[in-house]
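Re: the 216-residue chain
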Amino acid sequence: MQRTVVTVGPLTMASANAIALSQTPAAGPLTLNGATVTGGVAYLPQPRRVLITTTANESTQTFTITGTDAAGSPISEVVAGPNATTGQSVLDYSTVTSIVISGNAAGALTVGDNGVAGSAWVRFDGWAMPSINAQVVVTGTVNYTVQFSMDDPNDTVNPTNPNAMTWSNWPDIVLVGVTATGQSVVAFIPIFARVVVNSGSGSVRATFQQASVVPY
């Protein structure tokens, strides 16, 4: 397999109301009126997680987020309402076109981002040799984690929705929740891998390479 390189960052500063300013919405669409919104659509500086911050208990509500990913493909998911705290999306949004609350909000809330973002997914060859080399190079200040998944949205028998993917931390802790450049080799083949920026204003460049010889 040819080596694959993905990058994340640098991310602009997080803003809890970049998508929707403080409001107490009735059931239905929120008003998208934050600093990133133009013409009713939020254009995030880089694809990232959407953050919902509530001042009251909204645990009986759900929030349906709709938008696009880094490739411009439509994505959507349902986020459980937080109880006077924050909740975030599992997908990374490049744009947000709609956020719909299932019922009348109990209190004021805002929608923005929290500076968490994942890279594009790297797909591996299930027929090649089971050795994956991962290297992450850090620029600036950043905390990151490499993750893998055995789920596959393209599986013809048991596909998994992208918003329901199970992501696990890389088996080697040298690439989990760290701030420094690191490298790891693992003897298994995940279906996908990615690198997630957990915090920081820097950037990461992750390179993945799999043994390219197909066994007989």
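The two ends are 16 Å apart (CA to CA).
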